[in-house]
Structures are given as C-alpha cells and as structure tokens.
Amino acid sequence: MNYKRASTIELILLSAAAYAAIPVALSEMDPQLVSSFPVVLIALKVAISLPVVVSAWGRSRFLLSLKDRNILSLASIQAFFFILSLLLFTMSLASLDTPVAIVIAETWPIPSAIAMGYLLRDQLSRLNGSDYLWGSIACLGVVLVLDLPSKLDGVDTSTWIGALLALASAVAMGLSVAFKARAVKLMRDRHHIGPVLSYFLLQFFFLPALPLFAIYFVFLSGSNPEIDVPMPSLWAALPWMIVVVGLNFSSSVLYSFATLKLKRASDGFVWFFTPAFSLLLFSLWTGESLKGHELIGLTFILSSNLLLTIAADTSRAFKSLVLTVLAAGSWCYFVPPFFIENEFYFDALSILSIFFVVILVEGLGQVSRQTEEEERLLIGLNHALADKDTHLSDAFQNLCRRQSPVSFKRRYHLLRRALIADGYREIAQKLDHLAHVRNRTLRLGRHVSLAACLVATAAIGLLARPETWLAEMFITVYLPSMVFSFFILIEGQLDQERSLFRRLTTPSGDHVIRIMSLRSPRDSVIWSLILSAFIIVTYAYALSLAPA
To answer: What parts of the sequence cross the membrane (predicted)?
Structure first.
C-alpha cells in the first residue's frame, strides 16, 4: 500500500473517530434536546457559517458557486438527500429502538461507495465482487455490535417497516455523501475552494430543501408533542453543543480531504470503524467493559477493512480462512449446542480429518506435478518459437493467456493449424503434448470428497458439539484449517491471474519468464499474523463471555 493511499485511509479513520465521539457528547445532554438535535445541529452549522459567507472573501466564492450550474445542482441534491435521510431516520424511530436504527443507518458507506464509483469515475475505480463481499462483512459486523440476531425473534410488521425506513435513510445519506464529494471536487478544481471553505458554503445549499425541513418539523412535533427543555438544561448543554459542532466540522472536513485523494471507492468502507470507535469511547468514558457480541462485531469490522484496504494477504486461501474463523466463532457464540453430551465427538472429527488429509495430499501432489510439467512444456515451446514468424509467437502468447477451457481449445486449434501450415510439425507435436497435460486436471470427485468432509465436519463440530470450551476452541482452529487447506488446493489449480511470460520492452520484443514481484514482508506476513492472532484472541475471550 503506497504512501498516498495510506494517508487517505488515515484521514478517513480520523474522520470516523471524530464522528464517533458525537454520541458520547450527546449522552451528556437532555434526552428531549437530543431527540430534536439533528435540526438544531443544522441550524448551528448555518449560524457559524453565516459570518464566513457574509465576508467579502466568502461571498465572492459563494457567488461563483451559485453561478456554476453543476456545483449548484450537486450541492442542492446533496442537501436534499441529507434532509431526506434525517426525515426517514426520524420516521423509523416510531417503530425501532434508537440504537438499532442508528446501526442500520450507519451502513451508508456501501451505497456511498457505489454512487461514488459513478459520480467520481474519472478519479475512482469502481467496486468489484470482492469489495462487495468485504463491505457486506463489515456491515454485518455493525449489525453484530448490537446483538441484533438475538433481537429478531417475534418482530412484528411495524418493526420491519422501521428497518426499511432506516435502510432507506442509509441509502439517502450515502447518496448525499457521494454528491457532496463531487461538489467539493468541482469547487476545488474550478474555483480553488478548499474543503474548509466548502464546508461553510455548502451549509447554505440546504435552502432548496426547506419543504423537507417543514415535513421534518411537522413529523417531529407530531411524535413528540411536548418538547419542553428547561432553560438550565439548555445552558448546561451549550458546551456539549459546541463540542458536537466542532466534532462535526472536523469529521466533515477530514472526510472531504480524503475524498479528494481517494483512488478506490472501497476505501470508504473504513468508515465502518465508526461504531467501533464509539464503543471504545463509551467504554473509556463510562468505565464499562465491552461485551462478547460487541467484540465479535468489532472483529468483523477490523478483519474486513484490514483485508480490503490494507490488503494483508490477497490469496483466496487466507480470505477463506478468515471468513471461516469469523463464521465458526460467531456460530459458537450465538447458537447453543443441540446435544449436550456426545462421547464420540472428537473421534468422529478425527476420522474425518484422516480422509481429508489423504485426499488433500494426493490432490496437492497431482497439482504440483501437473503445474511443473505444463510450465516445462511452455518454456520449451517459447524457445522453439522465439526465432519463428511473429504471428506464431503472438498466437502462442494468446494461448498462454487463455485459461478457460473454451478459449484454450480455440487458440490451440488456431496455433496448431498455423504450425502445420508453416511446416513445423515437431513444434505442433509439443503443442499436442501441452494440450494433453492440460486435460489431465483434477477430477471433480476429489473436490466433492473434500467438500463432503468439510460439510460433515461443520455438521458435527457446530451442531453436535459438547457444551465445553474445549470443543469450541477446537472448532475455531480445526475447521478453518481444513478450509484453508482446501482452498490452497483450489488456488493451486485455478490460479489464473498472471501469465507465465511477459514481453520485453526491447526492440526485439522477446517473451521471457515473468518474475513475480513478492509483497513486502511488512504487508504480507506481519499484517496477516496480526490479523490471525487478533481474531483468535478475541474469539477466545468472547466465547468465555458467551451466555450459558
């Protein structure tokens, strides 16, 4: 991970930490004032922005922004979605507990990353399948922080409607953040307005959203007919209001600086650390220790972000290992065992492990032998075609890059016909040998046998485990190890990311063996060990806190 991307992630982390401190400050204020504080916060932000905009320096740049149709539309749209998010969130509170609604609404980084991929497509790379996976894992961690799985029993229709409203609030907030990022970028590029000044100027673009303000006030007054905060409470809350406004300013400006430097839309998932920071700050502020489900949720968030943004280890085997540890440990914590006593528990798992190891070793040996023979034939063909016509060498390189069976078969027939037509039957014979080696892949039955062992292990280990810490610790180590080994075999057979050859930039344009550039030890080894150790230690402690 390069320095520029690391600094961007640090800015998002600092922004999340500042935002996470806001609930701690709100906890010290009067509850009636907190219920209407979103509107109060916007009013305070507009009030502190007024002197900046009224000044000659700020007024000139504000008028420039108003004359720019793109900035005007983007800023107005972001304000509209922001107020819509507040409105939907307030409506969700009628049928949802406030912590649950907050957790659902805090999943906005996913729709924000999707929208940024389109609005900032000249700057950002769009999300891929892996980004969606790890973003969902981080989102699941946010859900586990509040132990939502244990609260879903017997929910009525109104609760699900409230959850949908909170989810719609998250989508609206994500769109607001994405449109704001685009507006801040245009304000800097076209009018040299930085994130600090743009923070003050954008507050006045809430004016087109006044109809939503009116709806918000009507709904708020309808659901809370008696909001009467005593004057002493207002004076006591004034310092905390100032703190909240300062934290909001810091968080917003830091995030705007980060979006200007953002290169990957998925880096915004670092914001999922916000509930983690909030829990830690609440723990430090109140002196209460974290609960087991909170630790598990934090582990989901940290693991997904470490794998996605820091890229500790990009192999499929390590990713599957982390996913299995998270799944197995969470199952052991949240789901009680079905059978309390099972004297043949470890015996059954031991028998499965014997079959698994035998099949795995044989499969790995076959993959290793096949890969070595195939690479030997590829190197020989590359040398044989080095001094031949260019179209033959290019056709061979196209063959090397086509890993799917259909593409490989098509390129094989094209190259074979060209070799025979040019009189190179000996080289065509070597090509036939290569095709024969490629056909000797692992049979599907090997993978089915290994998968059956994994399913049986999961069924015995997770469903019929004895109610002891020994079985739970055994599962969190044994089952992920089997998955890790299984995916090493799959990865060895299906690794299609790089070609064996690369073309030199010299005038001759020869194709030589590609030397893989290894990841630095700091990124590949240390971070992977830290992540693995953190997960194991966290689950060991969380399982000790599991309810009886």
So the answer is: 37-58, 70-94, 100-120, 132-148, 160-179, 200-222, 234-257, 269-287, 293-312, 321-339, 345-364, 444-463, 469-490, 524-542
Q: What is the DSSP string of 105-131?
A: HTTTHHHHHHHHHHHTTTT-BPP-HHH
Crossing angle of helices 56-67 and 37-54, in 10° steps, is 110
**Under 8 Å between Cβ of 514 and 282:** no
User: What is d(CA 462, CA 39) in angstroms, rounded to the nearest whole number?
Assistant: 48
Confidence of residue 514 (pLDDT cuts 50, 70, 90): very low
pTM: 0.64
In the chain, domain spans: 25-135+155-270, 345-541
Model confidence over 328-347: pLDDT tens digits? 888 888 777 765 566 677 77
Provide the terminal-to-terminal Cα distance of the chain, rounded to the nearest Å: 43
Residue 512 DSSP SS3: strand
Closest by CA position to 142, among listed 111, 173, 109: 109
Q: Could you tell me which of 297, 367, 363 has the C-alpha nearest to residue 330?
A: 297
Sign, Cα dihedral of 86, 91, 93, 99: negative
Lowest-pLDDT choice from 180-184, 277-281, 336-340: 336-340
Does an H or E element contain 297, and which? helix 292-305
DSSP of 47-96: HHHHHHHHSHHHHHHHHHHHH-HHHHHHHHHHHHHHHHHHHHHHHHTTTS
Question: Which of 14-28, 78-92, 227-241 is the least confident region?
Answer: 227-241
Q: Is the dihedral of CA 123, 128, 133, 139 positive or negative?
A: positive
Q: What percent of the chain stands above pLDDT 90?
A: 0
- Indicate the residue type of 60: S
The mean pLDDT of 273-291, rounded to a whole number, is 74
Q: CA angle 520-533-363, nearest 5°?
A: 70
To which residue do tokens 């590609």 refer? 514
Query: Percent of the chain beyond pLDDT 70?
Result: 72
110 residue type, one letter = I
Distance from C-alpha of 82 to C-alpha of 181, rounded to nearest angstrom? 13
Q: What is the mean pLDDT of residues 33-51?
A: 70
Tokens of 52: 């900046």
- The whole-angstrom separation of Cα 293 and Cα 147 is 6
